[in-house]
Amino acid sequence: MDRRQPIAGGRPIGARWVPVPPRDVVDRTIGVVGAFLPQRCLRSPVTSRDWRADRAFVFDRDAFTCRHCGTVGEDEPTSLRSYPVGDISLEGDVHESALVTVCCACFTVLEPSPSTETVAGGDLFDFVRDTTRVQGGTISDVADFASVATSLPDSLESAVDDETDVDLDASVAKYRRARRDVVLALDLVDARLERLAASETAVDSDVRPALAAFSETAAQLQRTLREVVASSETVATGLDRCHGCFASLERSEDETCPNCGLVVHQTVDWEHDDGTVAFDRLFATINETLQGASQTTETLTDRTMTLAEQLVDT
Ligand SMILES: [Zn+2]
Ligand SMILES: [Zn+2]
Predict the structure, then answer these.
(1) Per-residue pLDDT reduced to its tens digit, 83-106
(2) What pLDDT score does 73 carry?
(3) What is the pLDDT of residue 217?
(4) What is the pLDDT of residue 314?
(5) What is the DSSP string of 96-116?
(6) Euclidean distance between CA atoms 162 and 43, whole angstroms
(7) Ligand nearest to the CA of 236
(8) What would you measure as the largest C-alpha separation in the chain, in angstroms?
(9) Residues β-bridged to residue 31
(10) Paired residues of 277 in beta bridges
């Protein structure tokens, strides 16, 4: 079972990221980053700390390329940022496996902004359409991640049979990369939906119900997709590996990964009587949840159309 406590926006509580301003650095693209913290960050029980220690490694690993939009940059701070994805430990450095390279434009979308700009008028339809496009791409990312995760038991088994870790290392790298990409993509959609929610009151009252219906369905799709991600991560846990960094670990109550500090998922819902993990059942659930996501997508398409028609009318 996923132990994270989702909040309304779908993001986990407890490890909310607080942006740290780069010291004495003014970014020409987006100004002074994180110069002040939004209220909700001040309220959250989070310490800010230096996750930037590993950034050179992270940029190099990601080939200096934004993992969301593919923009190639040179270095921080002019064109690239490192961004922490998923749950992160509350203390210490953020492990490299939880950091991802993003360009300044994508970083700006993700940054918890104290002055969330509203979207209105003619921009609203473009914003909704782009949000649907980004979320559509996220569904493919989630499906890819699920497929990588569900192939892990076989990869581990053949590594044992062949007595070589070469293929396994490649599978693990693929898993970690796919997981970062998918969580980043989900975070970006959440950020867009938050901005849309903030815009609701600025929208013509005739259009508001259609916008609310769209937002509600998009949020439901987000929840379903995060469920698929959590179940796919549980495959790693079932193999006695950390679902974030993939270090070996013991499955037990309330354990955190000694390598990266993530709280280990519980597998109790997926265990046979003898304590081994019922991967078949876990895989079937992942598939069913993914199918549910594609049904929600159909509803979302309808609601996007309705909203588009109303925006054209007003
Ligand atoms: Zn980007
Ligand atoms: Zn770990």
Answers:
(1) 889 887 666 778 889 999 999 889
(2) 86
(3) 97
(4) 64
(5) GGGEEEEEHHHHHHHS--TT-
(6) 52
(7) 2
(8) 66
(9) 27
(10) 271
Q: Which two tokens stand for residue 204?
A: 């013509």
| Per-residue pLDDT, 87 | 80
DSSP code of 51?
G
Between the CA of 49 and the centroid of ligand 1 the distance, in Å, is 24
| Residues 217 and 131 sit within 8 Å (Cβ to Cβ) | no
Distance 67 CA to ligand 1 centre (A): 7
Torsion 179-181-185-191 (CA) sign: positive
Which residues of the chain register pLDDT less than 50?
A: 1-50, 52
Of the ligands numbered here, which is closest to the C-alpha atom of 248?
Answer: 2
- Cα 197–chain centre separation: 19
What's the gap in Å between 297 CA and the centre of ligand 2?
33
Structure-token pair, residue 125: 């339809």
3-state class (DSSP) for residue 12:
strand
Cα 88 to ligand 2 centre (Å): 10
**Distance (Å) from CA 109 to ligand 1 centroid:** 9
CA 96 – ligand 2 centroid, Å: 10
- State the pLDDT at residue 49: 44
Say how far apart CA 20 and CA 51 lie, in whole Å.
Answer: 9
CA–centroid distance, residue 68 to ligand 1 (Å): 5
pLDDT score for 178: 97
Q: Are 136 and 62 in contact (CB under 8 A)?
A: no
Q: How far is the C-alpha of 186 from the C-alpha of 151, rounded, in Å?
A: 22
Q: What is the pLDDT of residue 7?
A: 34
Q: Which two tokens stand for residue 251?
A: 């499955």
Q: Is 239 helix (H, G, I), strand (E, B) or coil?
A: coil
Ligand closest to Cα of 71 equals 1
Could you tell me the distance, in angstroms and rounded to a whole number, from the CA of residue 69 to the centre of ligand 1?
Answer: 4
Give distance in angstroms: CA of 104 to centre of ligand 1.
7
Which numbered ligand comes closest to the C-alpha of 264? 2
Distance 182 CA to ligand 1 centre (A): 14
Q: What is the pLDDT of residue 3?
A: 39
